[in-house]
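User: Modeling request: complex.
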Amino acid sequence: MNRPPEDSKPPGTALSHISPDGRARMVDVSGKAVTCRTAVAEGWVTLNADTMALLQEHGGAGKGDVLQTARIAGIQAAKRTSELIPMCHPVATDVVNIEASLVENRVRLIVEAVASGRTGVEMEALTGASVAALTVYDMLKAVDKGIEIGPVRLISKSGGKSGDWQRDASRQE
Amino acid sequence: MNRPPEDSKPPGTALSHISPDGRARMVDVSGKAVTCRTAVAEGWVTLNADTMALLQEHGGAGKGDVLQTARIAGIQAAKRTSELIPMCHPVATDVVNIEASLVENRVRLIVEAVASGRTGVEMEALTGASVAALTVYDMLKAVDKGIEIGPVRLISKSGGKSGDWQRDASRQE
Amino acid sequence: MNRPPEDSKPPGTALSHISPDGRARMVDVSGKAVTCRTAVAEGWVTLNADTMALLQEHGGAGKGDVLQTARIAGIQAAKRTSELIPMCHPVATDVVNIEASLVENRVRLIVEAVASGRTGVEMEALTGASVAALTVYDMLKAVDKGIEIGPVRLISKSGGKSGDWQRDASRQE
Amino acid sequence: MNRPPEDSKPPGTALSHISPDGRARMVDVSGKAVTCRTAVAEGWVTLNADTMALLQEHGGAGKGDVLQTARIAGIQAAKRTSELIPMCHPVATDVVNIEASLVENRVRLIVEAVASGRTGVEMEALTGASVAALTVYDMLKAVDKGIEIGPVRLISKSGGKSGDWQRDASRQE
Amino acid sequence: MNRPPEDSKPPGTALSHISPDGRARMVDVSGKAVTCRTAVAEGWVTLNADTMALLQEHGGAGKGDVLQTARIAGIQAAKRTSELIPMCHPVATDVVNIEASLVENRVRLIVEAVASGRTGVEMEALTGASVAALTVYDMLKAVDKGIEIGPVRLISKSGGKSGDWQRDASRQE
Amino acid sequence: MNRPPEDSKPPGTALSHISPDGRARMVDVSGKAVTCRTAVAEGWVTLNADTMALLQEHGGAGKGDVLQTARIAGIQAAKRTSELIPMCHPVATDVVNIEASLVENRVRLIVEAVASGRTGVEMEALTGASVAALTVYDMLKAVDKGIEIGPVRLISKSGGKSGDWQRDASRQE
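Assistant: Request completed. Predicted assembly structure:
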């Protein structure tokens, strides 16, 4: 069994998670350098006006509890990303932090993940944002089942062979 | 320790996951009837034109593998929803099915969850859709880190005390 | 392979988790009735005066966050009890609730677990109390590594063949 | 999103798991050195005389099985500490060892955890001790539901910026 | 989204886990009756003569510990089968019991799983046998890395629509 | 608590997972060097002629889906080996790859695991092979419950103090 060279991709494509014969695979990172990697992702949850009013009026404790439960759920999920995403590598995150805030009628969740390793932490940040957003939905679904999650997307990353990446300001809301 | 009556809510609110004194809590479902519950959720992933071309040109195996890996990841995550979402009840799902398709420049994931139990399966469907969408991102992120996930949202549910619910056609894309 | 009759115990003993030939085993509950079962457990964490002062002075947000993080961790762990305790049965808990309060220089965690099933939920309540207590320790260990956890113990249970049980008031603090 | 400097603490406090604005957070360990870290914790379980007699009379196999099941459960839980304790970092433990012995009418569990990493392993040792103690309870609860767990506490630690720590002999039993 | 009728299979095949359009799926069991289901599986591990001698000479404690660790690992894995096998349903097992014995130069593991549910427990029994066998390998691999696992296979099952099944005596060793 | 020297073994034996006093234990790897480790394992699943015909005739999609589901399940299980095998160390695998092919009436699964660490990845490769084989069984069990898994065995390993190891060609099929 010959391992393909690091980051080999099918001819004519750039899908590193697909092998030359077209099958899903993990990327072999054994030849990559251990560097400090960071990623920041954001997740949005759009509430209707009544639900947002309820969340705010319920004030200190209530809002705090919804947002803090979401933050804790997101942190815990980020640490378990490799269990959830089949081709993800296990990563020992140095920190996962989540900020939750209200922006007009939406909840904004910003997740930063940091690790020293051979692979990036984009998926950790995005998984944290998704599960935090799902938790906001869960805490509020008795009031409005129509709440929408999204966009969930990467804001920036640093470290690793592919280097730094920043979302175009023009593509951000 | 007196358990609050089923579904008790803080005065003036409808946040069943917040206790009268403002703390996150599980809802007590011990008094609820066991009924068949279903939920359908959808998740969208927006690709740029190049990535979509790559996904399609890569054709049979490649596209299949990206979408099937996403489907399997979503099914597995849906079964573990109560581990991820702090206030969710453990549910023995009777089935979780995921359909993945390409709609213009987007991937659409439809997740149906079914269970007989005392609590709904909306979170199972939404968690399946989110993790399937994250997996699509993971499989394609080497090509475009800017891929966006969302909306992830409930389409319909049936069963339980709150009965049937259907997303307004006008709110659907 | 003959299954031993329900609740068979080694001759002369009452250790249902030890087989007649002296080996750890799960108890076969397939013949037991499905009834509503409850259990209440408590867990204590003893702080020194400085740490307690810090926790209280840090006031609203700080204390709330330490205790709420502990409550969420305990609820999540209680739902996963059968993963942690080798001979425990999987249980679909109808609710796990945790109250956290300060009693002099101690944190008191009271956990109630409820389920409809063939087996009791004592271990769910005790596991929730233990993990909530460990989380309090984790949140405060930068201040005092000497913090002690305990006692963690059952307060009461109801339901099932063995019926109701209540801790002697004389054995409670 | 500016990451706070390593180990920053709220003004006037030392609660590293609480952010300056009073929210639970993981500590950022990305700037810490990788060193060998050890921690030893103990956990006690107090039995009544009858239960202890039963445990001992049941002799070789029985006692061995109760204690060995507890040891295995504790080792497995210690490896999964970061899943259970929300703000804990994933740690690749080099070893977790548990000694179980009977001291008068109590079971004593001593857990040692060792890892090379950026963060200590106190929580791993304490989690191992707690889950081992819970398992002893589970194995014996058919005989006595009143069994008490505790104290569970740190005995010593070494390595890391905060250096060595040893429980006062005067505070030990 | 129309759910296929229960147990629908692709035309001309009997692969219930493959949808008519050729994709992996969970079987919808929501229409199935809750009945008591049992399954017995066996797993074999073949040692060389030296390793078997070592295992036996090491006698009481040693052999016991290898086999008991394997039994506990198998029980715990059986309870988590639906996490490991993508299309498996969550099942609340009423009991999982494992017998381990030495037969000439082989270790024989017999696993019985029992549950009341809408789906069989064959996978629980087989997963328990596989993980118990892997644990025997792990405990002995320092002596012989060439140890072979297998066969792992179903011996019998009962309950459910497909009724009872028994392995042909002629196909058993 | 004195830790035994690295790799200490009971007198007269080579069972590193058994302590001198005969109890299961993790091996202390804190003194071992971090090196690149690889392991290759294989797992076989024997089908009867009808099932194999069905698998092949079902052709592209069907066969692909059975084998790909098995591959994904095996990769995910390999990443969680330390949760399943009690004395295994957590390992951050750099890659797990699985090849699945049909050889006469059998499915052959080859798993390669690679990691940089203080401990080998044999168990990761073997666990991946076992769970992939169980998944093949699960996908086909509606057709034939008599399908046999095995042998599951190590083919080769490299790295670490014990160096390289290769299965005798004469012992391979």
